[in-house]
Amino acid sequence: FNTAAVRPGESIAVIGCGGIGLAAIEAARLAGAGRIVAIDPVPKKRALAEKLGATDSFDPDDPDTKSAVVELTKGGVHHAIEAVGRISAGELALAILRRGGTATIVGMMPLSQK
Known about the structure:
Layout: E1 11-15, H1 19-31, E2 35-39, H2 43-51, E3 56-58, H3 65-72, E4 77-82, H4 87-95, E5 97-105
Parallel strand pairs: 1-2, 1-4, 2-3, 4-5
């Protein structure tokens, strides 16, 4: 809620809908985010994310997810929260940002990875 500093009307994508990701979705809703995109491979987690405030949800394993999120948000999200701890999730967070957007990496990446 405080770290990303989401402003009312801004778009946000949360990658990973476990406890941390769901908390980020709720915080985005409370902050007044205009579009909240949940990204998780588990359909039940995406459904729960939508109950908690996500406006849209996608499977990160779908090859069209990146382009769909960028199109949906008219150029990419203002904020991307990575809450998984996988390099692929961090790369997706960066790929769906709009110019000037902010990625917040919450998940613990392996120290051997860049």
